[in-house]
Design goal:
By secondary structure, the protein is α/β, with parallel strands linked by helices. The chain folds into two domains: about 130 residues, D-Maltodextrin-Binding Protein, domain 2 (3-Layer(aba) Sandwich), CATH 3.40.190.10; about 90 residues, Periplasmic binding protein-like II (D-Maltodextrin-Binding Protein, domain 2), CATH 3.40.190.10. The protein is built from nine helices and twelve strands.
């Protein structure tokens, strides 16, 4: 083979080897930098300047009206008082929004999870996460899991119960097909079968009319019953039971904010702030001690 051809082949071999070396180095650099870059980008996206809110620089939060205790105090979500008002502002702060940057609007409960565009960034309104609702909207990671609650008229013997055993001989009303019925049977185990009613309104009517000593409903319902429907009743206590409802912040389907809101809730949980908010407004202020 002529010398000139040998030189050309040698040169080509060197060029090819150099190209492969550079490519290999480039792949190593990309792999080592990929995760930190993605994490940084995610953090940067969850800031007021970069999040796609309905109004630039403003976080629009929805809830129903009336907004009743212990979720909201004085029917005023803007005051930061009550479990969900305080939670909403904590999420906003975690995302970088000040109190002045938060705007509240009224959205009826049933309209919140209806299909279609939303004119709010997120809704916080004791909304249980269900597969059916999740078909039409996004949910954040849960910010609260509801226990079951015992509700009794204030002047009844059942109102003085301090343990589940104290309710063993009470007549207890529940709605058919609910986790409350399961909770009564498995946790309280009353001497007599619970009184079963077809609807939640029937359960409330039974309590009002003295047909039963107490009723068991989930904690969110108990707060509503005592605040609005039967004002001479009290929450005797709460207890964990199978099938407790998880509440999530609701967002428009495929919202660009869903991941950011979930991350904010996780941060609040990790720091212990979410637990402190819950203790302040859901247990201590609401007067719902644990029944064991």
């Amino acid at each position: 083979m002529p010398v000139s051809k040998i030189r050309i082949l040698t040169l080509l071999t060197l060029v090819l080897a150099l190209a492969l070396t550079v490519a290999a180095c480039g792949d190593d650099d990309d792999d080592s930098a990929s995760d930190p870059t993605e994490t940084t980008a995610s953090a940067e996206n969850c800031t007021p300047a970069n999040m796609e809110t309905k109004e630039a620089g403003t976080l629009t939060i929805a809830t129903d009206k009336p907004a009743y205790p212990p979720y909201f105090e004085d029917n005023d979500p803007t005051n930061g008082k009550g479990f969900e008002s305080a939670t909403a502002y904590a999420i906003a702060e975690e995302l970088g929004f000040s109190r002045e940057d938060v705007k509240w609007k009224v959205v009826p409960f049933n309209a919140s999870y209806a299909p279609g565009p939303k004119d709010f960034d997120f809704d916080i309104n004791q909304i249980s996460i269900t597969p059916k609702r999740a078909e039409a909207v996004d949910f954040s990671t849960p910010y609260y899991t509801a226990d079951q609650a015992v509700v009794a008229l204030k002047n009844s013997d059942a109102a003085n119960a301090t343990s589940l055993a104290d309710l063993a001989d009470a007549s207890i009303g529940v709605q058919i097909g609910t986790t409350s019925l399961e909770a009564v049977e498995e946790q309280i185990q009353p001497e007599n079968d619970p009184e079963v009613f077809q609807t939640s309104n029937d359960v409330v009517s039974a309590l009002k009319n003295g047909q039963v000593d107490a009723v068991v409903v989930d904690v969110p319902t108990a707060f509503y019953v005592t605040a609005v429907q039967v004002t001479n009743a009290k929450i005797v206590g709460q207890f964990p039971a199978p099938g407790g409802d998880e509440w999530g912040v609701l967002l428009e389907k495929n919202s660009p904010l869903t991941e950011c809101v979930s991350q904010a809730i996780e941060s609040l949980r990790d720091s212990g702030e979410l637990e402190q908010i819950e203790k302040q407004w859901m247990s201590e202020a609401a007067g719902a001690p644990e029944l064991q």
